[in-house]
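Intended use. Records like the one below are meant for learning the mapping from a protein sequence to its folded structure. Do not use them to infer anything beyond what is encoded.
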Amino acid sequence: MSKFRDIYKTSYCRYYSVQKLNKKVPIITCKRSEYNHYPGQTYSKFDGVKLASESWFHPKSKNDYFVIHEQSSENEYKKTSRRTFEELGLCPQLLEVMSRLEYSLPTEIQGMSFKPILQGHNTAITAETGCGKTLAYLLPIIQHILEWKPSIAEDFNSPLAVVITPSRELAAQIGDIARNICENLNINVSTLVGGRTKQKMLNPPIEYCDLLVTTLGAYSKLVTTGIYKIHNVHHVVLDEADTLLDDSFIEKLSHLLKKFSICYKVDIQTPPSGCQVTLVSATLPHELPQAVNSFVQPESLHTVTTNKIHRLLPHIPHKFIRLGKAQKPVELLKLVQADMNQRRPVMIFSNKTATCDFVSMFLNENNIECVNLNRQMIVPLKIGKLEEYSSGRVNVLSCTDIASRGLDILRTRHVINYDFPLYTADYLHRAGRTGRIGSATDCRVTNFIAWPREIQLVQKIETAVRKNLVLPNVNANIRRQIEDRIAKMSVKV
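Structure written out for the chain above:
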């Protein structure tokens, strides 16, 4: 009798716990409701985590789906630090600019970054996408330029600060933001991108420049040829640093930065001595590449980070749909037509240029105006494509990962991964194109899952969310990951 009572008691408690969980708003809802996940739900060490995507390798799993719901309100996510810009130490000229631009309070990462940069520390800023990292470094740098400029002899092509980016689109965006801030501050902002570098070498630009925003390739060539001078550079910023520290760029970057006198901590007297470096990214690896030692001492980096890094943005829903390859165009058309009916601007990501081009042609053939943007396009064709979308002339952009990093297009309300990315860092950056500070409240991400490697990554993401862990393997060194994967395959063979 006692044994029966214990079994009954255990069963009742388990039933009561499930009923209590079911009254809560779920974190994950699934096509098969038995896989729903609720706040506070845990998993037995012996049974393991039950995934909605566990059976997705089987062909019969097509049309299955699950949704990771938003877990915080927009206001909660976008809340600002309690300190004002004035309390952070922003100078009167910049306080007036922030008021003109209608920035009332600094965001969390801006509040954390201002002091170490202003004090001359080498700084690594890591924070979630869309939280205001650009202003986090631009404001203290511009304040330094305001303090230093009167006592530094003006020389053409000799900036006081340089922001280096991996793409021309990001350089153009940061340049526009900087020019908007410096409009009435007597600070000259220039943007330098590739495409006509040889022409610039034959017919060099001659301009007075205080803040230069540039791509790595173009700047490296013009510094090497002596067209741009570095003796006055006291700030170097690597925006999207994880990409610039990737094996694809690191050799050229390291060769360039060895030319600068980067110090452990810059003496911020006027004029300053030495140069300080700032690394900025949403997915900066915990362990920096060994090559970083060639231009900066890693222990000198003052790390600034938030508690939301390497996690899915909590204020937008993420839907994952298991599809067959042949189902993807039909599902895409259905989603984009619904977006157009609701006037929701949408970005569609593909892994390959050919797929990016196909998506654009397919949608245009179905009377949905769409522009495409990818890295393989020649420069004259690239120019203006992003502007057509960001300005609102076109509401659909088909793109590869060239548009996934740093671009602050507030009007994007839906991101569709037509091809699911192969790396966690890429997913975080793509998803970060929507739900940014200042965006609408009804933003979302939809993912098409078709191939085994995609399913493997989805299962890692789902597991991390169910166990409330950071996402695994957030490492942007794509070339090295590919080489490691090939090496492992070779060993197996």
